[in-house]
Amino acid sequence: MAKLKITLKKSVIGSNERVRETAKSLGLRKTQQSVVQEDSPSIRGKIRKIEHLLTVEEAAE
Length: 61
Known about the structure:
Elements: E1 3-8, H1 17-25, E2 34-38, H2 41-49, E3 54-58
Antiparallel strand pairs: 1-2, 1-3
């Protein structure tokens, strides 16, 4: 299965609790932090919720 590299580009300060919890569930705590996640429908849904704060690219396997 493909992997996605997800980077938090903008701060979650000032965002509502739902946005902050979504970023936390993806494993993102600080700006410019990146995580690699398996590509799945649940991860894609979380990305879509906060896509204005993220950069997403396909990770090399």
